[in-house]
Amino acid sequence: MQIKSLAEYEETYKFSVDHPEEFWAGIAENFLWKKKWDKVLSWNFTEPKIKWFEGAKLNITENCLDRHLEKNGDKPAIIWESNDPEKPSVTLTYKILHEQVCRFANVLKKNGVKKGDRICIYMPMVPELAIAVLACARIGAVHSVIFGGFSAKSIADRINDSACKLVITADGSFRGNKQIQLKEVIDDALIGCPTVEKVIVLTHTRTPVSMLKGRDLWYEDEIKLVDTVCPAEEMDAEDMLFILYTSGSTGKPKGVVHTVGGYMVYAGYTFSNAFNYQPGEVFFCTADIGWITGHSYIVYGPLSQGATTLIFEGIPTYPTPSRFWEIVEKHKVNILYTAPTAIRSLMSFGTEPLNGIDMSSLRVLGSVGEPINEEAWHWFDEEVGHKKCPIVDTWWQTETGGLMISPIAFVTPLKPACATLPLPGVQPLLVDEQGKEIEGNGVNGNLCIKFPWPGMLRTTYGDHERCKQTYFSTYPELYFTGDGCMRDENGYYKITGRVDDVINVSGHRIGTAEVENAINMHAGVVESAVVGFPHEVKGQGIYAFVIYPKIHDEPELTKKDILQTVTRVIGAIAKPDKILFVSGLPKTRSGKIMRRILRKIAEGETTSLGDTSTLLDPAVVDEIIAAAQQL
Ligand code: WTA
Questions:
Q1: Cβ(419) to ligand 1 under 6 A?
Q2: pTM to 2 decimals?
Q3: Around Cβ 269, how many Cβ atoms within 10 Å?
């Protein structure tokens, strides 16, 4: 599946556009199917309705586990590195992982889980998280993993949206010098979740937890009661594999739905190809499994290719900012896939933390989650890769399932801070506000995709209309990404950032409407408006303009109260970096907030604010500017 030269890329790309069905059928041949497909693709972007490999039967865990057993059963599948560097790391071979997945799949079955049931997973970054994910897939249950930084209320919303039957969690998790009481958060969430019948609790931090009779079970006890044989459920290619909630510009987070066959082919193919993974190599993706990057490039992509994937529980700066580099040295990591925000944060400590650490095992570097700035790109290239490791700057989304626009390591000529070219099978185009295609090079526009790819979302859980409205209605017959993009003189794509009301904080997608709703839930708040602003480490920070007429004591304390409310409603990841109390917001005569003006003010701009003549009360702008300068 791996492309070896630029000429081969060009030829493959052309073939994938001229003959997409033949192309993807050829790629799919590299996977294990119980029955091959009757039809490679049927689709329209109007409803939308997308089906890949219709009629095919498979189980993704047979591709990720069983098929490697004979030749590579004793090869490490997962290497786990604890938050605490003093704790020994853990290696699970393919044989052991297979056994543990089967065992836990039997635990799920024993507790009444059937094909199609939805299971919520809220766990630390430990091997059992990957085991839980794969155990669901083994028996055809649909997993919905929730990132450990979300609050009880966010979890409850997600559990209720997809009517989860069972929750898999742990007592707590370690992150740097902090502990998060996961079970306690789950207990709070479940007060409002009538569909959940059972909770399976892994022992990890061994902090005291409440265990409810008839509902809560210990992981360690349960796995003793079952055996290790669990035949893989036969799934249709278009059966649901997982739901992953993500933020958009309006309303609640939506459950992006991925299906078994297409997702597997896409995650496996892009992993093998873009990173140029070689047998025996150690792949270290620093994302959390709670996000799509972890789903596709810690679990499914690497394991489907028989790779060794490293799971790290902690954070890059604990106990020191050498931690990532020490892990690279200790486990002889060959491919390191991380986020610009981590690079910027580590860069701020200078090169001292890298001194004396042998990172010669590194061969390929990767970046994901947000646009990477040139300074961070060069630092990554020079200080980490010693200018000998290609950096693949991979652009993609929760909705795309896998990499879309990205260099192929050792094939695509690189350009700093640029996602370069579409991978085979990906047909991007740029459109103007009216949806007219912008042709040629040296142009800017909104990034769309005009043809389906196997890893694309199929729907948003329980609300297909929302999927249609969000992605397929802005521009008819096109999938709209929500990103702005430049195509340079050489036809290279460079993502410029979101063009909708989504902000990207440390690579996490946060909808401004969600944060506003959370702030507005705070007693005393009349109205608020949230925008992003450039942040040196996080990429973007959250700036909230808040109308709060009767501050009862010190404004600084009131701000902390508001942060507490946001933490309760969404989670600590959505806390605004700046709060500015204002007496009014810039609105048009029809009552719409002019965020464009607020964005400029948040960026520190005070003069060229553009046309303000349509504002209901232009004076409010001067007042906000004056207040912002005080902040
Ligand atoms: C942004 C993460 C520039 C983009 C895989 C996208 C990027 C959103 C890049 C999706 C990149 C991701 N360069 N921007 N290499 N990768 N983005 O769903 O705005 O968490 O729409 O998926 O992150 O975020 P999501």
A1: yes
A2: 0.97
A3: 28
